[in-house]
Amino acid sequence: KGIPKEPRGNFLGFVEYSGKEFLGFTEADILNSVIDMNSNDLVGFNDFESKTTFSSVNVIGSCNHEHSLVVSPVTKRTLRVLSLFDGISSGLFVLENMLNIDIEVYFSSEIDKHALRLQSDRWSGKIVQLGDVRNITEELLLALGRIDLLIGGSPCNELSRVNWRRRSMHDPESSGHLIFNYVKIKDSLQRRVVASGLPFFWLFENTSHMEDDVLSDITSVMGSEPTTICASAFVPMNRKRNFWGNIPRMRDLCTYTDQTTGLELQDFLRPNRNANFSSVKTVTTNRSNLKKGVAKPVTMNGTESHLYVNEVESLMGFPIHYTDGCDLSVTQRLQLLGRSWCAPVVAKILEPLSEIYLQKRSLQEASQSDE
Q1: In Å, what is the CA distance from 158 to each residue of 105, 194, 241?
Q2: Catalytic one among 156, 230, 254, 342?
Q3: Which of 9, 98, 228, 258 fits a 20 to 30 Å CA distance from 369?
């Protein structure tokens, strides 16, 4: 009662509770009450050892979006991931290298031959490759076992308004139609995992440069409102993307739509190179997109220059040489980076999962345990 129609600021959590005492509150204290989540802790996830059962947690954020999670507190476990349209495995890099989450298995669906070469070189033995997303059947999903997290971003070429030759996402021959493969897999996994009493998380990404009717259609089939986040909040690059999903607290990240980082392009350049601008536009498969007018972003020895591929890697949040080492050309590497996720953006979205799933042990912890 008394909840504003358009809540602002901190999250408000509507909690349906059943079970024993939880964090000092009895059932009578919590039932149908409103909890001010100033600490940004997700109710139900900060005490996995508790025997309490939450039937549901509905979270309303400051952007007037709403999502529901089915929550059953369990002992923390390793994370099982299915990544569709996996590309250069940005999701695996974020989860393991940036969030330090212990990955039990990482299933990847990808068909690009250059991306597959990079996956094999960079993540040898850590990825189980499933091939074409269109060949993932209900039987295969059952064979994969439990999936905790589904991620993916289908090709945006025929969804973007800048492509005047684009076809409808409802055209089976269009690459935009692959969205329906994601939705089919998401819905299947969600029914099965939630029925088992375990949490199931999903994240879908695509360009923000789409017509309103396309955005509306995607939102309808996803069953979730998008959160738009610009990479400029993390790196000096104006790259806006839409994200749909049920990751805890992601709705509150809409404040990152127009924020800018204190970093400048110069901070990402190799030695003896000078930035002509403080930031760049969107990194895509076309490096000319980073020019402002006819001016290239960098000057070296008095001559204007495009960004080096290592500099693009840094802008996208990857280590230098992340796309190197498997005989890919500079053009091929740039195209892979242009189709990938900006790592710090996705790390910010997926950050709450580090509170839910096991963390990898550090070398020091492993050594102490062995002793």
Answers
A1: 32, 33, 15
A2: 156
A3: 98
